[in-house]
Design brief:
There is one protein chain. The protein is mainly alpha-helical. The chain has 5 helices and 3 strands, in the order αβαβααβα. α2 crosses α4 and α4 packs parallel to α5. The protein starts with 7 loop residues before the first helix and ends with a helix. The mean pLDDT is 95.
Length: 109
């Protein structure tokens, strides 16, 4: 799918066609740029950034603010890949309205 912005519909079509996609994890702008230049289809900004980037013991301490900050940086570097950001611990399981609010924040901010 190189050259065009990858969308959720593209991912669905690839699944229907049993076509493989290429996905990588990135946590910052430079890695987003590299993923874009390498032709990745999907880039994940995972909450494991707590351990990989922030030196935390696990993912529990990762906040919405951390995820928004790192996802925003990756998005700036990615022109074509679909960027997927993790919802951190306790950002989605308190209530449905809270989950919707936090998902909206991650997409908007």
């Amino acid at each position: 799918m190189s050259g065009d912005k990858v969308t959720v519909l593209d991912v669905q079509q690839a699944k229907e066609e049993a076509r493989k996609l290429v996905m990588i994890t990135a946590y910052d702008y430079p890695l987003g740029l590299l993923a874009d230049e390498a032709g990745m289809d999907i880039v994940l900004v995972g909450d494991c950034l707590g351990m990989v980037v922030m030196g935390l013991e696990g993912t529990v301490e990762v906040t919405m603010e951390h995820m928004i900050h790192h996802t925003r940086a990756v998005v700036r570097g990615c022109k074509n890949p679909l960027v997927v950001g993790d919802m951190p611990f306790m950002s989605y399981n308190i209530s449905v309205p809270e989950a919707i609010h936090n998902a909206g924040r991650l997409m908007k901010e």
